[in-house]
Every structure is written in structure tokens, then in C-alpha cells.
Design brief:
Helix 2 crosses helix 14. The mean pLDDT is 91. Helix 3 links the parallel strand 2 and strand 3. It is globular and about 60 Å long. It has 14 helices and 6 strands.
Length: 314
């Protein structure tokens, strides 16, 4: 019997804030519908960053095949355009295997790139200008180029990290051509390559925040400080985009002598709670997302059964 999700080219999206339990529920959904998981997490992509990114464990990855996990060197720049390309290739491969793509994660812009027509290939390119800008970076550093962007396109500068030279140059090219790069968060044209079924997971705020605090304590116990130290020994610094993730930047501050170990842990918890709030705000913009408050169930098993039942009966 043909997989109905494959027949209708439907993908299942399991989204929600950090520490809500996305990995577990995505696995349950994938097992129920002959699926494989495509990660939608900007940190789990990186190799060597296993603890701080709360990657699926080896056992979980044996249960269900995961794509876009543990594949990018943390020193390598990585963009949402590259994510979109790799994720769509993974989705098509899963369909070709007769299986259901299950998208799981909490990075809103990455999910947007799969749900909407975000065209990254149409940015104007001026070879001469690009060579000039690249030379300026070599001579004067990234901050010099970023200040130029702030002057000509403050809106783009507000969205782009000063050290993401590739994006800064691209935005400067767009500004010079009279076609500034838009804010992809405002895309409204839906992607027609497949049909997404959106599931949003949430919990009551007190429970979610308690889970966040407990998870940070667990990550510390599992060796988060040692992981960050090992990454620094590999030559990574606070200027690398990968090291700006929550749980990494705070511990770098500890190693730099800017705070105590306990302060670094508390700051990681605080910043993770703030991240969860921003994620919920982002995902609640999707009008066609069906929400499940996991706090309203007697157990996660009961919640998983209800989600699977809903998917079968919708």
C-alpha cells in the first residue's frame, strides 16, 4: 500500500520551543508514518557540538534516520540558503524512498525557507564591486564593511551579524544595484513543492522553563564546559558564527574570565528561556499550525498517541 503522505507529497513539521520535547515526538511520528527526520536546527548541523546543541543521541538516530545533523564543520560559514538547498534535497530523497519527510526543529528562519518561496538565487552580483569589498575586508576587517552596510541599508544591517562577511557583501551588492535584499521573514508566497502539515508543541510556561533549567544542568553534567574548551582548542573563537549559539557564548565568557562558572550556567538558562519565548512568538504566526499543549496530557506517551491519532484522522 502506498504511503499516503508520499502520495500526496505531504511533509510533517514538528516545531516548537527549545526543550519542549521535539526530538522525542518527531521520532514517534516518524515511526508511526514510515518517516525519516530532517533537522531544522541551526546548531545541530555542526560537528563536535553535540552537548550544547542537544543533538539526537546515537540511539535516537538509530531509531529513525536523521538528515542535516552533525555534517558542517563549526569553522565553516553556513547560511539559510545552504540549509534550504540541503533540506529540500533530503526531502526529495525521503520521498524517493517511499517514506514520509518529518521536519523537526526550532529555527524559525530555516523552517520559513521550507514553507515559503525564499529565492536566494536572484541577488544581483557585481564582480568588480565584490572584489573591491573582499579586498576591503582583508585590509580593514569585517567591522569596516559592516559600518558601510549600516550607512546604506540599516534594515539589512540589523538582521545580519557583523562577522558574517558573506551576507554583508551580498547586502552591499543589493544596495548598490538599487535592489536591497529583503527580509525573508516577510515572505508570503507558499512553497508548492510539497504540502506541509504543521504541528506545534508547547507546554505551560512554568513547566517549559523548569525543563529548560533542568536540561542546562544536565548538559553541564554531561560535559558542556569541556566541549566548549575542546572547540576553543580547535581554534574556534567567539567570532565564529557557530560559537555564538546559546550555551557556547556564555561559557566562552567564563573561560575569558568575564564571569564565574555559576554565572555562566545561570546566564545560559536565562538566555535559553528568552529563546523559547522568541520561538513561540515566531511559530504562532503560522495560522495553519495545529498546537498541542503537552502539559495538558497525563504523560508524553498519551500526548504522542493523540498527535498520531490526529494525523491519521485529519
Amino acid at each position: 500500500m502506498m504511503n499516503t503522505f508520499m502520495k500526496n507529497r505531504e511533509i510533517i513539521v514538528v516545531a516548537g520551543p527549545t526543550a519542549v520535547g521535539k526530538t522525542r515526538f518527531a521520532i514517534e511520528v516518524a515511526l508511526a508514518f514510515h518517516g525519516e527526520i530532517v533537522s531544522c536546527d541551526s546548531m545541530q548541523l555542526y560537528r563536535y557540538m553535540d552537548i550544547g546543541s542537544a543533538k539526537p543521541t546515537p540511539q535516537e538516530q538509530v531509531q529513525v534516520k536523521h538528515y542535516l545533523v552533525d555534517m558542517i564543520d563549526p569553522a565553516q560559514p553556513f547560511s539559510v540558503a545552504e540549509y534550504q538547498k540541503l533540506a529540500k534535497e533530503a526531502i526529495e530523497h525521503i520521498f524517493s524512498e517511499g517514506k514520509t519527510p518529518v521536519i523537526a526543529g526550532g529555527t524559525g528562519l530555516y523552517l520559513n525557507s521550507l514553507l515559503y518561496d525564499m529565492d536566494f538565487g536572484s541577488a544581483p552580483q557585481d564582480t568588480t564591486l565584490r572584489q573591491t569589498l573582499e579586498k576591503e575586508v582583508e585590509l580593514f576587517g569585517p567591522q569596516y564593511l559592516y559600518r558601510k552596510l549600516e550607512e546604506v541599508d540599516p534594515a539589512a544591517a540589523a538582521r545580519i551579524h557583523p562577522n558574517n562577511v558573506k551576507k554583508v557583501i551580498r547586502a552591499l551588492e543589493g544596495a548598490a544595484s538599487g535592489n536591497p535584499i529583503g527580509d525573508f521573514r516577510n515572505c508570503t508566497e507558499k512553497c508548492k513543492d510539497y504540502h506541509p502539515i504543521l504541528i506545534g508543541l508547547t507546554r505551560n510556561r512554568e513547566e517549559l522553563y523548569d525543563r529548560i533549567n533542568q536540561r542546562v544542568d544536565l548538559l553541564v553534567k554531561e560535559g558542556l564546559f569541556q566541549e566548549v574548551e575542546d572547540l576553543l582548542d580547535r581554534g574556534l573563537t567567539e567570532d565564529d558564527i557557530s560559537m555564538k549559539g546559546i550555551g557556547y557564548k556564555e561559557i566562552i565568557a567564563y573561560f575569558d574570565g568575564l564571569c564565574s562558572r555559576e554565572e555562566a550556567i545561570d546566564l545560559t538558562k536565562k538566555n535559553t528561556r528568552h529563546l523559547a519565548k522568541r520561538q513561540l512568538t515566531w511559530f504562532r504566526r503560522y495560522e495553519d499550525m495545529t498546537w498541542f499543549n503537552l502539559s495538558e496530557y497525563g504523560s508524553d506517551e498519551e500526548a504522542a498517541e493523540d498527535i498520531i491519532r490526529w494525523l491519521k484522522n485529519r
